[in-house]
Design goal:
13 helices; alpha+beta; two-stranded antiparallel sheet; 2 domains; 55% helix; single chain; six-stranded mixed barrel; elongated; 12 strands
Length: 395
Protein backbone atom coordinates (compact mmCIF):
# COMPACT_ATOMS: atom_id res chain seq x y z
CA UNK A 1 0.00 0.00 0.00
CA UNK A 2 2.92 2.35 0.75
CA UNK A 3 4.17 1.78 -2.81
CA UNK A 4 0.76 2.78 -4.15
CA UNK A 5 0.67 6.08 -2.24
CA UNK A 6 4.29 6.77 -3.11
CA UNK A 7 3.39 6.33 -6.79
CA UNK A 8 0.38 8.68 -6.46
CA UNK A 9 2.61 11.33 -4.92
CA UNK A 10 5.13 10.97 -7.73
CA UNK A 11 2.43 11.47 -10.35
CA UNK A 12 2.02 15.12 -9.30
CA UNK A 13 5.63 15.88 -8.43
CA UNK A 14 5.95 18.11 -11.50
CA UNK A 15 2.66 19.92 -11.27
CA UNK A 16 2.83 21.93 -14.49
CA UNK A 17 3.62 18.88 -16.62
CA UNK A 18 1.01 16.78 -14.81
CA UNK A 19 -1.59 19.50 -15.35
CA UNK A 20 -0.97 19.41 -19.11
CA UNK A 21 -1.55 15.66 -19.17
CA UNK A 22 -4.72 15.98 -17.08
CA UNK A 23 -6.08 18.74 -19.32
CA UNK A 24 -5.31 16.71 -22.45
CA UNK A 25 -7.34 13.77 -21.17
CA UNK A 26 -10.04 16.08 -19.82
CA UNK A 27 -10.58 17.68 -23.22
CA UNK A 28 -10.97 14.29 -24.91
CA UNK A 29 -13.34 12.86 -22.31
CA UNK A 30 -15.38 16.09 -22.16
CA UNK A 31 -15.89 15.94 -25.91
CA UNK A 32 -16.73 12.24 -25.67
CA UNK A 33 -19.27 12.88 -22.88
CA UNK A 34 -20.95 15.68 -24.81
CA UNK A 35 -21.07 13.96 -28.21
CA UNK A 36 -22.10 10.55 -26.86
CA UNK A 37 -24.89 12.19 -24.84
CA UNK A 38 -25.96 14.21 -27.89
CA UNK A 39 -26.11 11.01 -29.94
CA UNK A 40 -28.15 9.28 -27.22
CA UNK A 41 -30.60 12.19 -27.15
CA UNK A 42 -31.00 12.18 -30.93
CA UNK A 43 -31.58 8.43 -30.95
CA UNK A 44 -34.22 8.70 -28.22
CA UNK A 45 -36.17 11.35 -30.09
CA UNK A 46 -35.94 9.40 -33.34
CA UNK A 47 -37.04 6.18 -31.63
CA UNK A 48 -40.12 7.91 -30.16
CA UNK A 49 -41.15 9.10 -33.61
CA UNK A 50 -40.39 5.74 -35.20
CA UNK A 51 -42.39 3.90 -32.53
CA UNK A 52 -45.36 6.26 -32.83
CA UNK A 53 -45.60 5.77 -36.59
CA UNK A 54 -44.68 2.08 -36.76
CA UNK A 55 -48.24 0.73 -37.06
CA UNK A 56 -49.71 3.57 -39.10
CA UNK A 57 -50.43 4.15 -42.75
CA UNK A 58 -50.83 7.56 -44.40
CA UNK A 59 -53.10 8.09 -47.41
CA UNK A 60 -52.58 11.43 -49.15
CA UNK A 61 -52.68 13.05 -52.57
CA UNK A 62 -50.22 11.62 -55.05
CA UNK A 63 -47.80 14.58 -54.89
CA UNK A 64 -47.80 15.13 -51.13
CA UNK A 65 -44.56 16.41 -49.61
CA UNK A 66 -42.07 13.80 -48.38
CA UNK A 67 -44.24 10.84 -49.28
CA UNK A 68 -47.22 12.13 -47.31
CA UNK A 69 -45.33 12.06 -44.01
CA UNK A 70 -46.29 15.70 -43.41
CA UNK A 71 -49.97 14.76 -43.56
CA UNK A 72 -50.76 15.68 -47.13
CA UNK A 73 -49.33 19.18 -47.33
CA UNK A 74 -48.28 20.41 -50.76
CA UNK A 75 -50.97 18.62 -52.77
CA UNK A 76 -54.65 19.21 -53.61
CA UNK A 77 -57.07 17.74 -51.05
CA UNK A 78 -58.77 14.40 -51.51
CA UNK A 79 -62.43 13.44 -50.91
CA UNK A 80 -63.32 12.45 -47.35
CA UNK A 81 -65.32 9.52 -48.77
CA UNK A 82 -62.05 7.66 -49.27
CA UNK A 83 -61.94 7.19 -45.50
CA UNK A 84 -65.25 5.32 -45.50
CA UNK A 85 -63.93 2.83 -48.04
CA UNK A 86 -60.78 2.23 -45.98
CA UNK A 87 -62.77 1.45 -42.82
CA UNK A 88 -64.13 -1.72 -44.43
CA UNK A 89 -60.67 -3.25 -44.99
CA UNK A 90 -59.70 -6.10 -42.60
CA UNK A 91 -57.20 -5.36 -39.81
CA UNK A 92 -57.94 -1.61 -39.97
CA UNK A 93 -58.40 -0.50 -36.37
CA UNK A 94 -59.09 3.23 -36.67
CA UNK A 95 -59.36 5.75 -39.49
CA UNK A 96 -59.02 9.50 -38.96
CA UNK A 97 -59.16 12.27 -41.51
CA UNK A 98 -56.66 15.11 -41.36
CA UNK A 99 -56.76 18.71 -42.54
CA UNK A 100 -53.31 20.31 -42.82
CA UNK A 101 -51.99 23.54 -44.27
CA UNK A 102 -49.03 25.89 -43.99
CA UNK A 103 -48.61 29.45 -42.80
CA UNK A 104 -45.61 31.72 -42.41
CA UNK A 105 -44.87 33.54 -39.18
CA UNK A 106 -44.07 37.20 -39.69
CA UNK A 107 -40.38 38.15 -39.59
CA UNK A 108 -39.15 34.84 -41.00
CA UNK A 109 -39.13 33.36 -44.49
CA UNK A 110 -39.99 29.79 -43.56
CA UNK A 111 -43.48 28.35 -43.66
CA UNK A 112 -44.68 26.26 -40.72
CA UNK A 113 -47.23 23.41 -40.79
CA UNK A 114 -50.62 23.73 -39.11
CA UNK A 115 -52.52 20.53 -38.34
CA UNK A 116 -56.27 20.77 -37.86
CA UNK A 117 -58.23 18.28 -35.76
CA UNK A 118 -61.96 17.60 -35.64
CA UNK A 119 -63.90 16.83 -32.48
CA UNK A 120 -63.95 13.10 -33.27
CA UNK A 121 -60.17 12.89 -33.49
CA UNK A 122 -59.73 14.93 -30.33
CA UNK A 123 -62.13 12.80 -28.29
CA UNK A 124 -61.19 9.35 -29.63
CA UNK A 125 -57.53 9.48 -30.68
CA UNK A 126 -55.14 9.25 -27.72
CA UNK A 127 -52.04 10.61 -29.42
CA UNK A 128 -53.30 13.97 -30.70
CA UNK A 129 -51.57 17.17 -29.59
CA UNK A 130 -54.76 18.12 -27.73
CA UNK A 131 -54.21 15.22 -25.32
CA UNK A 132 -50.47 15.86 -24.87
CA UNK A 133 -50.39 19.44 -23.61
CA UNK A 134 -47.51 20.08 -21.19
CA UNK A 135 -48.08 23.83 -20.72
CA UNK A 136 -51.15 26.00 -21.07
CA UNK A 137 -54.61 24.86 -22.17
CA UNK A 138 -56.42 23.54 -25.25
CA UNK A 139 -57.65 26.12 -27.79
CA UNK A 140 -60.98 27.66 -26.85
CA UNK A 141 -61.95 28.86 -30.31
CA UNK A 142 -60.87 28.92 -33.95
CA UNK A 143 -58.48 31.83 -33.41
CA UNK A 144 -56.37 29.97 -30.89
CA UNK A 145 -53.80 27.22 -31.35
CA UNK A 146 -51.10 25.22 -29.60
CA UNK A 147 -47.53 24.64 -30.75
CA UNK A 148 -45.23 21.64 -30.53
CA UNK A 149 -42.34 21.53 -28.11
CA UNK A 150 -39.77 21.04 -30.89
CA UNK A 151 -41.15 23.99 -32.85
CA UNK A 152 -40.92 26.24 -29.80
CA UNK A 153 -37.28 25.22 -29.35
CA UNK A 154 -36.59 25.98 -33.00
CA UNK A 155 -38.25 29.39 -32.77
CA UNK A 156 -36.16 30.21 -29.71
CA UNK A 157 -33.01 29.41 -31.69
CA UNK A 158 -34.21 31.96 -34.26
CA UNK A 159 -34.63 34.46 -31.40
CA UNK A 160 -38.39 34.48 -31.99
CA UNK A 161 -39.79 32.91 -28.83
CA UNK A 162 -43.51 32.13 -28.84
CA UNK A 163 -44.98 32.57 -25.39
CA UNK A 164 -48.27 31.21 -24.09
CA UNK A 165 -50.91 33.91 -24.20
CA UNK A 166 -49.19 35.86 -26.98
CA UNK A 167 -50.93 36.89 -30.18
CA UNK A 168 -48.79 36.57 -33.31
CA UNK A 169 -49.19 37.46 -36.96
CA UNK A 170 -48.98 34.90 -39.76
CA UNK A 171 -48.96 35.34 -43.53
CA UNK A 172 -51.33 32.97 -45.36
CA UNK A 173 -52.19 32.50 -49.01
CA UNK A 174 -55.54 33.97 -50.09
CA UNK A 175 -56.30 33.48 -53.79
CA UNK A 176 -52.70 34.08 -54.79
CA UNK A 177 -52.23 37.03 -52.45
CA UNK A 178 -50.70 37.18 -48.99
CA UNK A 179 -53.08 37.85 -46.12
CA UNK A 180 -52.12 38.44 -42.47
CA UNK A 181 -54.03 36.72 -39.67
CA UNK A 182 -53.67 37.08 -35.91
CA UNK A 183 -53.57 33.87 -33.90
CA UNK A 184 -53.16 33.32 -30.19
CA UNK A 185 -50.87 30.64 -28.73
CA UNK A 186 -52.54 29.07 -25.68
CA UNK A 187 -50.47 25.95 -25.04
CA UNK A 188 -47.47 23.74 -25.79
CA UNK A 189 -47.68 20.00 -26.48
CA UNK A 190 -45.23 17.12 -26.63
CA UNK A 191 -46.29 13.88 -28.31
CA UNK A 192 -42.83 12.41 -28.86
CA UNK A 193 -43.52 12.39 -32.60
CA UNK A 194 -41.19 14.94 -34.19
CA UNK A 195 -43.52 15.35 -37.18
CA UNK A 196 -46.28 16.61 -34.89
CA UNK A 197 -44.03 18.35 -32.36
CA UNK A 198 -42.48 20.50 -35.08
CA UNK A 199 -45.77 22.17 -36.00
CA UNK A 200 -48.77 24.19 -34.84
CA UNK A 201 -52.07 22.47 -34.11
CA UNK A 202 -55.61 23.76 -33.83
CA UNK A 203 -59.19 22.98 -34.68
CA UNK A 204 -60.11 21.69 -38.12
CA UNK A 205 -62.06 24.83 -39.02
CA UNK A 206 -58.97 27.00 -38.49
CA UNK A 207 -56.91 24.82 -40.86
CA UNK A 208 -59.73 24.83 -43.43
CA UNK A 209 -60.06 28.62 -43.29
CA UNK A 210 -56.32 29.22 -43.68
CA UNK A 211 -55.79 26.54 -46.34
CA UNK A 212 -59.07 27.27 -48.18
CA UNK A 213 -59.99 23.59 -47.95
CA UNK A 214 -63.71 23.09 -48.62
CA UNK A 215 -66.03 20.83 -46.62
CA UNK A 216 -65.93 17.23 -47.79
CA UNK A 217 -62.24 17.51 -48.66
CA UNK A 218 -59.26 16.47 -46.53
CA UNK A 219 -55.49 16.48 -46.92
CA UNK A 220 -54.71 13.07 -45.42
CA UNK A 221 -56.16 9.91 -43.96
CA UNK A 222 -54.44 8.43 -40.92
CA UNK A 223 -54.95 4.67 -40.67
CA UNK A 224 -54.12 2.65 -37.55
CA UNK A 225 -53.61 -1.10 -37.99
CA UNK A 226 -54.21 -3.73 -35.31
CA UNK A 227 -50.62 -4.98 -35.52
CA UNK A 228 -47.28 -4.14 -37.09
CA UNK A 229 -47.31 -7.49 -38.87
CA UNK A 230 -50.41 -6.43 -40.82
CA UNK A 231 -49.18 -3.02 -41.98
CA UNK A 232 -47.91 -4.15 -45.37
CA UNK A 233 -51.03 -6.21 -46.09
CA UNK A 234 -53.37 -3.34 -45.23
CA UNK A 235 -51.32 -0.86 -47.25
CA UNK A 236 -51.61 -3.05 -50.34
CA UNK A 237 -55.35 -3.48 -49.73
CA UNK A 238 -55.84 0.29 -49.49
CA UNK A 239 -53.88 0.80 -52.69
CA UNK A 240 -56.09 -1.72 -54.47
CA UNK A 241 -59.30 -0.23 -53.03
CA UNK A 242 -58.47 3.32 -54.14
CA UNK A 243 -56.79 2.54 -57.46
CA UNK A 244 -58.43 4.21 -60.40
CA UNK A 245 -60.10 6.88 -58.29
CA UNK A 246 -59.63 10.57 -59.10
CA UNK A 247 -57.80 12.36 -57.60
CA UNK A 248 -55.10 9.73 -57.29
CA UNK A 249 -53.56 8.96 -53.92
CA UNK A 250 -50.35 7.57 -52.55
CA UNK A 251 -50.35 5.04 -49.72
CA UNK A 252 -47.30 5.45 -47.51
CA UNK A 253 -46.02 3.44 -44.58
CA UNK A 254 -44.21 6.10 -42.50
CA UNK A 255 -41.93 3.44 -41.04
CA UNK A 256 -40.49 2.76 -44.49
CA UNK A 257 -40.05 6.48 -45.19
CA UNK A 258 -38.31 7.07 -41.87
CA UNK A 259 -35.97 4.07 -42.06
CA UNK A 260 -33.48 5.77 -44.47
CA UNK A 261 -33.53 8.87 -42.25
CA UNK A 262 -32.88 6.75 -39.20
CA UNK A 263 -29.98 5.08 -41.02
CA UNK A 264 -28.55 8.51 -41.82
CA UNK A 265 -28.86 9.50 -38.15
CA UNK A 266 -27.07 6.29 -37.16
CA UNK A 267 -24.22 7.13 -39.54
CA UNK A 268 -24.07 10.66 -38.14
CA UNK A 269 -23.99 9.23 -34.62
CA UNK A 270 -21.07 6.97 -35.55
CA UNK A 271 -19.29 9.99 -37.03
CA UNK A 272 -19.67 11.89 -33.76
CA UNK A 273 -18.33 8.87 -31.89
CA UNK A 274 -15.32 8.72 -34.21
CA UNK A 275 -14.60 12.40 -33.60
CA UNK A 276 -14.77 11.93 -29.84
CA UNK A 277 -12.54 8.84 -29.98
CA UNK A 278 -9.91 10.78 -31.93
CA UNK A 279 -9.99 13.44 -29.22
CA UNK A 280 -9.62 10.78 -26.52
CA UNK A 281 -6.69 9.18 -28.35
CA UNK A 282 -5.06 12.61 -28.57
CA UNK A 283 -5.52 12.93 -24.81
CA UNK A 284 -3.93 9.50 -24.39
CA UNK A 285 -0.92 10.62 -26.42
CA UNK A 286 -0.47 13.51 -24.01
CA UNK A 287 -0.25 10.94 -21.21
CA UNK A 288 2.36 8.97 -23.16
CA UNK A 289 4.47 12.06 -23.85
CA UNK A 290 4.32 13.35 -20.28
CA UNK A 291 5.10 9.95 -18.77
CA UNK A 292 7.93 9.34 -21.23
CA UNK A 293 9.52 12.71 -20.45
CA UNK A 294 9.15 11.96 -16.76
CA UNK A 295 10.73 8.53 -17.11
CA UNK A 296 13.68 9.80 -19.19
CA UNK A 297 14.46 12.49 -16.61
CA UNK A 298 14.25 9.94 -13.78
CA UNK A 299 16.38 7.12 -15.18
CA UNK A 300 19.03 7.65 -12.46
CA UNK A 301 16.29 7.45 -9.84
CA UNK A 302 15.07 4.12 -11.19
CA UNK A 303 18.63 2.78 -11.23
CA UNK A 304 19.12 3.77 -7.61
CA UNK A 305 15.79 2.19 -6.63
CA UNK A 306 16.84 -1.07 -8.28
CA UNK A 307 20.16 -0.93 -6.41
CA UNK A 308 18.16 -0.55 -3.19
CA UNK A 309 16.23 -3.75 -3.92
CA UNK A 310 13.25 -2.68 -6.01
CA UNK A 311 12.10 -5.38 -8.37
CA UNK A 312 11.15 -4.76 -12.04
CA UNK A 313 7.50 -5.29 -11.10
CA UNK A 314 7.78 -2.48 -8.49
CA UNK A 315 9.12 -0.08 -11.12
CA UNK A 316 6.47 -0.99 -13.69
CA UNK A 317 3.71 -0.78 -11.07
CA UNK A 318 4.83 2.68 -9.95
CA UNK A 319 4.86 4.13 -13.47
CA UNK A 320 1.50 2.57 -14.37
CA UNK A 321 -0.10 3.96 -11.19
CA UNK A 322 1.24 7.42 -12.02
CA UNK A 323 -0.18 7.20 -15.54
CA UNK A 324 -3.52 5.85 -14.31
CA UNK A 325 -3.82 8.57 -11.67
CA UNK A 326 -3.34 11.33 -14.24
CA UNK A 327 -5.80 9.66 -16.60
CA UNK A 328 -8.54 9.11 -14.00
CA UNK A 329 -8.24 12.68 -12.75
CA UNK A 330 -8.45 13.94 -16.34
CA UNK A 331 -11.48 11.75 -17.02
CA UNK A 332 -13.28 13.02 -13.92
CA UNK A 333 -12.57 16.61 -14.93
CA UNK A 334 -13.65 15.83 -18.50
CA UNK A 335 -16.98 14.36 -17.37
CA UNK A 336 -17.60 17.46 -15.25
CA UNK A 337 -16.82 19.74 -18.20
CA UNK A 338 -18.99 17.60 -20.47
CA UNK A 339 -21.90 17.87 -18.03
CA UNK A 340 -21.42 21.63 -17.99
CA UNK A 341 -21.62 21.69 -21.79
CA UNK A 342 -24.77 19.55 -21.67
CA UNK A 343 -26.36 21.93 -19.17
CA UNK A 344 -25.70 24.86 -21.50
CA UNK A 345 -27.10 22.94 -24.48
CA UNK A 346 -30.25 22.04 -22.54
CA UNK A 347 -30.69 25.65 -21.49
CA UNK A 348 -30.17 27.33 -24.85
CA UNK A 349 -31.27 24.60 -27.30
CA UNK A 350 -33.63 22.01 -25.82
CA UNK A 351 -34.01 20.24 -22.44
CA UNK A 352 -33.90 16.80 -24.08
CA UNK A 353 -31.34 17.55 -26.80
CA UNK A 354 -28.86 15.23 -25.05
CA UNK A 355 -29.17 12.40 -22.55
CA UNK A 356 -26.34 11.44 -20.18
CA UNK A 357 -27.03 7.78 -19.48
CA UNK A 358 -25.22 5.38 -17.20
CA UNK A 359 -24.01 3.61 -20.32
CA UNK A 360 -22.36 6.80 -21.61
CA UNK A 361 -20.81 7.48 -18.20
CA UNK A 362 -19.48 3.93 -17.97
CA UNK A 363 -17.95 4.10 -21.47
CA UNK A 364 -16.23 7.40 -20.68
CA UNK A 365 -14.86 6.12 -17.36
CA UNK A 366 -13.67 2.89 -18.97
CA UNK A 367 -11.98 4.91 -21.71
CA UNK A 368 -10.14 6.88 -19.06
CA UNK A 369 -8.83 3.71 -17.44
CA UNK A 370 -7.77 2.27 -20.79
CA UNK A 371 -5.98 5.51 -21.66
CA UNK A 372 -4.14 5.43 -18.35
CA UNK A 373 -2.98 1.84 -18.73
CA UNK A 374 -2.13 2.14 -22.43
CA UNK A 375 -0.36 5.46 -21.95
CA UNK A 376 1.85 4.05 -19.20
CA UNK A 377 2.89 0.71 -20.73
CA UNK A 378 5.81 1.90 -22.86
CA UNK A 379 7.13 4.43 -20.29
CA UNK A 380 6.92 1.71 -17.61
CA UNK A 381 9.06 -0.74 -19.55
CA UNK A 382 11.40 2.10 -20.51
CA UNK A 383 11.82 2.85 -16.81
CA UNK A 384 12.47 -0.82 -16.11
CA UNK A 385 15.39 -0.74 -18.55
CA UNK A 386 17.41 1.36 -16.14
CA UNK A 387 20.29 -0.65 -14.54
CA UNK A 388 22.33 0.28 -11.44
CA UNK A 389 25.64 -0.50 -13.18
CA UNK A 390 24.87 1.87 -16.04
CA UNK A 391 23.87 4.64 -13.66
CA UNK A 392 27.10 4.21 -11.65
CA UNK A 393 29.24 4.37 -14.81
CA UNK A 394 27.53 7.63 -15.84
CA UNK A 395 27.91 9.18 -12.38
Amino acid sequence: MSLFFFSLHNAFRKRAVSALAVLGVAFGTALMTFLFSLTAGMERRADHTFSDLSSRIMVTGRDAIFGGLFLGMGTPPIPSTYAEAIKKIPHVEKVYTQVSTIMRPQKIIYAMPLYGYGQQEISEQAGTPFSKIIEGVVPGNNQEMILGKSLREYMRLLNLPYEIGGVYQFAVNDKGRSRVVDLKVVGVYHTGNEVLDGAFSGYEKLARDIGKIPAGKITAINVSVDGIQNVETVAKAIQTELSGKVPEVQVVVPREVLTPLKNIMDIFGRFLMAVSLVAVIAGGLSIVVVMLLSVVSRMKEFGVLKALGWTPSNIIFMVLVESLALSILGSALGIALGCGGLALARTFIAPDIAVLTWKVTAVVCLSGIIIGVAGGIYPAFRANSATPSKILREA
